[in-house]
Design goal:
Layout lengths: L3 E10 L2 E6 L2 E6 L2 H4 L7 E10 L4 E6 L2 H11 L6 H10 L2 H9 L3 H4 L7 H19 L20 H11 L4 H11 L6 H12 L2
Parallel strand pairs: 3-5
Antiparallel strand pairs: 1-2, 1-4, 2-3, 4-5
């Protein structure tokens, strides 16, 4: 098992980072909470989880060990795969996710792309006890989506739309959300944060 990878960010295309490790490029899918902290040329450590299937092997990377633990915990829930788990962690911070589960806040969960009412109810039931131990271990953190990011394209609007679509939002939904907030921001990360906030209302 590959527990973590240390390397230099070679390319970024949401939600995937191409990490150069001694001349070998690793494609790693990340939640936006991690992706938005990365910049080309930056040396980083990503905590990784490897999913092996008959037709593919996929690495998933996270900025810290706790987020990786939450990802693995989500995968244990019936009906939750890597894509949905990434979507949950991209939309909700670890702290907000734990708070949501603790307070049976289904309305917040169903706003995550791909999470319907039945899945949200299952998440509540299966995660409640597992998250109790984590509830008091998470300190306050800044919203990672507010961090500066550098994508491969030059258009902040296009970058924001692509990032939202990578979460599972339909192109029309992403375009509408970005259009509603783009006039107030110039950086991609700020547009993404504002668009996500508006869609969670």
């Amino acid at each position: 098992m590959i527990g973590c990878i240390i390397g230099e960010v070679f390319a970024l295309e949401a939600p995937t980072v191409l990490l150069n490790v001694n001349g070998v490029g690793y494609e790693i899918d990340t939640p936006l909470s991690t992706f938005c902290q990365l910049q080309k040329g930056q040396k980083v450590t990503l905590w990784t989880h490897l999913v092996v299937r008959e037709d593919a092997q996929q690495l998933y990377g996270f900025s810290d060990a706790q987020e990786k633990t939450i990802f693995r915990t989500l995968l244990k829930v019936n009906g939750v795969g890597p894509k949905m788990a990434l979507g949950i962690l991209s939309t909700l911070s670890v702290e907000l996710l734990i708070h949501t589960i603790e307070h049976d806040d289904i309305n917040t969960l169903i706003k995550v792309p791909g999470v319907g009412k039945k899945t949200a109810e299952r998440l509540m039931i299966e995660l409640r006890d597992r998250f109790k131990a984590l509830a008091h271990s998470t300190g306050s953190t800044t919203n990672a989506a507010a961090a500066q990011i550098q994508f491969m394209t030059n258009s902040p609007v296009a970058e924001a739309e692509a990032a939202l679509q990578s979460l599972g939002y339909k192109p029309a939904e992403a375009q509408k959300a970005v259009a509603a907030v783009k006039a107030d921001y110039t950086e991609s990360a700020d547009i993404i944060r504002a668009a996500l906030k508006s869609m969670m209302k």
